[in-house]
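Please review this pair:
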Amino acid sequence: MPRKPRFFLPGVPAHIVQRGHSQEPVFFDDGDYQAYLGWLEEASGRYHCDIHAYVLMTNHIHILATPREKQGISRMMQYVGRQYVPYINHTYGTNGSIWEGRFKASLVSDEEYLLTCMRYIELNPVRANIVNAPSYYRWSSYRYNAQGKNNTIVTEHPLYTAMGRTKVSRCENYKSLCKAHIDADQLKSIRAAWQTGTPLGNDYFREKVERKLKTKVGQARRGRPDGFLKGL
């Protein structure tokens, strides 16, 4: 079966998800998380992708990024994979790919979903019952976006920057936003979008994306997405 194409547009945010093979762990030690983030930072700079939010879970990752070039995200993820997979195999005496196929992704309407998608990503450890509050989880961008902790990986999206005139006010406003409930329909829409590659937004956003790409993208989908993982 031919690979399903993925589509990206310069200046349009994308939600990226990659999962471990057969839901197996891809991170085993603090050094693994640190190594992945180091290569992610290197790749984002090399391939001109602005990362707004991320979380590294035990068996999958989420990244929200805006590419400045059409192939930026694909090249960024390919670069990280080419560094991280051999690192894991060498470190733990394994072989072969650790990922469940290629990463999945969906374009995100910034006006409608960007801040919700950021919260969805950074609250993942809470939904998975790993921590009681997102600030307790080390391997996400929450501490930068909500607490102002130094993080050289993150580039603020203009919508986040517009939340306050100072970093302190942006953090406070974002922290308050993260306390708000993400309703079930929004969670379902976000999950269905990255599962199927369907643009995340209203009909106008989807039509605009398809006009720019000159092709249909993703698919209509109902019900619980296939391959659903707790905490995703």
Notes: Residues 14-209 form a domain with the Alpha-Beta Plaits fold (CATH 3.30.70.1290). The chain is about 45% helix and 10% strand. The first helix runs from residue 30 to 46.
